[in-house]
Amino acid sequence: MLHGGAAPFDADMQPRLLLVDDEPRLLASLHELLRDRGYHLVTAGSGSEALAQLSRLRFDLVLLDLRLPDIGGHEIMDFINAKEIDADVIVMSGEVGIDAAIGAVKRGAYDYLRKPYSREELLKTVANALAQRRLKLENERIAQQLENSEKMYRYLVDSSPDIIYTLNHEGRFTFVNDRASQLLGYTREELIGKHYSVVVHEEDLERARYVFNERRSDDRASRNVELRLKCRTGSGHERTFNNTLMTIALNSIGMHVPDHDVKKHEFFGTYGVARDITDRKRAEELISYQAYHDILTDLPNRILFKDRLGLALIQAKRKGTELAVMFIDLDRFKLVNDTLGHVKGDELLQQAALRLKECLRRGDTLARQGGDEFTIVLPELRDRADACMVADKFLECLHQPFDLDGHQVHISASIGIAIYPGDGETIDELLRHADIAMYQVKGLGKNGHSFYHASMQDVSTQKIELERSLRNALENDELEMYYQPQIDVVTGRIVGAEGLMRWNHPQRGLLSAGEFLPFAEENGLMLPISDWMIGALCRDMLKWNQAATGPVRLSLNVSPQYLDRGDFFEKMRGALARYGIAPAQIEVEITENICIRNPQYAIEQLNKLCQLGVSVAIDDFGTGYSSLSYLHRFPIHTIKIDQSFVKEIHDEHGHYPVILAIISIARGLGMNLVAEGVETEAQARYLEANGCATMQGYLYYRPIALPDFIGALRAQAGGQGAVAIQA
């Protein structure tokens, strides 16, 4: 039924497509891909907007993202079905669960594309959907004409997209239409008089024999069955057909003696319509495959992995043998992903998966859990040494460099191993314990493997306790700011410092920011901690201003959560006024991910600070592929060279193009420049020779407490520079 009485699909008219995705970039990319291809395109950025367009206009095809912020894709498909809107739906989703795919198929989706999909796959799917739509509507037109003319009936039977045939009581063809020749390669003359078994696949003969020989009448005269029919191509190809079968009952007595009551039905033969569903079956198989496999690496996903692990556990229990479960996390993957971009990161995952797979035996299962994490089950383990040997193979194969379009990349892995039944008897226990063992390797320096031990559970418990005690750290005055001085290498003077938050934990001693701030981010504690930090920095600045002969600048690294709250500017202005700190001494430090959620609002906040007299620095510059855009969008005064680039400097006379490019950008834009993580004289000399004079790192100072920092300021004549705070 056509919604709103709109005209049916016309081949001469442009098909109207509705593109639905809440991600503006993806929606724009999809629109650009389909533009100028003879389609009339309408876009919707939310579920409610999609419903409004569907209620207002007729569409031939809807390209629908399942995950929308207001109304889910499944609900939109329910709306289409409830309103009997005549539009085909192609679902596009990044969800890895099988429920999303099954839900889409149940609601009548034409196809299911898993993100990220290829350009060719999308274009082919759209073209096929519209072609099938034309074919469907053409069939409807044909069906109407069949009622009007026997001559038209014969013509339409022969031009039908389905195979139409009749069999006599012996199962021999008495009629086939031209479609049989087009799809199967047999002429009508070759099939007439032949038994149906000549075209039925050998494995389906028994089922066909039962269907065609079962005598049906009355309401049970019609039935559906799927059979594979052989194609006469000479290559053994086959196609799957959905056969609608109808048993014809002829009342011979009634024909000859119409006045008498009908007493008997004599079986006459079978009339059938065979529809080619090969493409649909392949699409169903593809959807089923994708529901259980990772689309990027083609490895089993977590659902299929758990299924195979469950079967392996049953077998191990029956035979009384051991098995190993491994949890692998790639080290340095995030650095590669942030430096070279997500496309190269995906290529790295694909190459790593191939290498890991080559190390396994037949019967072992390698799966991708998500991100850069993999899981493995090794059934029928002889002893722990076998698992050790496989883990060593993994580490060795990953040690070799990866080539990503000319970029040589080095990674390693942290591997945790749990053994059944000693380390657990259930799927969840073994995975959890292998995960805990993997994190133990991470904590000990990465690039290795470790078997699970019950004592590791205590470490996991300590993390939970750390989270609890962090809530009391502010009340108990356990937080403190440390400062790592920055040096002007020309004069040798301290011109600034980077401040690092520390936690004086009552049991565990001094903890670095990386050991507790992630917990603060996850548990909503960054706001009060950031409030404390602003006050602590202002109080510290009063003390070091008294010790220094010149002003020392403070650069403040703000949490994204804190910037998004909206009162950061007011709190900063109030604190500066309360403690009498000049705004020119403050520099707010941002990173590339700080303004992802609301970049325009962040720009407004930073512009307010600049108008107040506060400057802005970009931290870890060059580690992400969008850094250059930030230099144009945000009011930036200082660029900080990330220590990952500085560490690559081994020869002061060498050539390090990334460093030179960053220095050139800073010069061209008239920005200040600071190098982080300087640890050797060669690094310092190379940076100075190429135009970077402000540095910090272990070559000069480690992070020091406020009294030591003030002592260092008093020990020299003074200077002017930047103090950065990592919160």
Automatic annotation (TrEMBL):
<dbReference type="InterPro" id="IPR000014">
    <property type="entry name" value="PAS"/>
</dbReference>
<dbReference type="Pfam" id="PF00563">
    <property type="entry name" value="EAL"/>
</dbReference>
<dbReference type="InterPro" id="IPR035965">
    <property type="entry name" value="PAS-like_dom_sf"/>
</dbReference>
<dbReference type="InterPro" id="IPR001789">
    <property type="entry name" value="Sig_transdc_resp-reg_receiver"/>
</dbReference>
<dbReference type="Pfam" id="PF00989">
    <property type="entry name" value="PAS"/>
</dbReference>
<feature type="modified residue" description="4-aspartylphosphate">
    <location>
        <position position="65"/>
    </location>
</feature>
<feature type="domain" description="GGDEF">
    <location>
        <begin position="321"/>
        <end position="454"/>
    </location>
</feature>
<dbReference type="Pfam" id="PF00072">
    <property type="entry name" value="Response_reg"/>
</dbReference>
<feature type="domain" description="EAL">
    <location>
        <begin position="463"/>
        <end position="717"/>
    </location>
</feature>
<dbReference type="InterPro" id="IPR000160">
    <property type="entry name" value="GGDEF_dom"/>
</dbReference>
<dbReference type="InterPro" id="IPR043128">
    <property type="entry name" value="Rev_trsase/Diguanyl_cyclase"/>
</dbReference>
<protein>
    <submittedName>
        <fullName>EAL domain-containing protein</fullName>
    </submittedName>
</protein>
<feature type="domain" description="PAS">
    <location>
        <begin position="149"/>
        <end position="219"/>
    </location>
</feature>
<dbReference type="InterPro" id="IPR029787">
    <property type="entry name" value="Nucleotide_cyclase"/>
</dbReference>
<keyword id="KW-0597">Phosphoprotein</keyword>
<dbReference type="InterPro" id="IPR013767">
    <property type="entry name" value="PAS_fold"/>
</dbReference>
<dbReference type="InterPro" id="IPR001633">
    <property type="entry name" value="EAL_dom"/>
</dbReference>
<dbReference type="Pfam" id="PF00990">
    <property type="entry name" value="GGDEF"/>
</dbReference>
<dbReference type="InterPro" id="IPR011006">
    <property type="entry name" value="CheY-like_superfamily"/>
</dbReference>
<dbReference type="InterPro" id="IPR052155">
    <property type="entry name" value="Biofilm_reg_signaling"/>
</dbReference>
<feature type="domain" description="Response regulatory">
    <location>
        <begin position="16"/>
        <end position="130"/>
    </location>
</feature>
<dbReference type="InterPro" id="IPR035919">
    <property type="entry name" value="EAL_sf"/>
</dbReference>
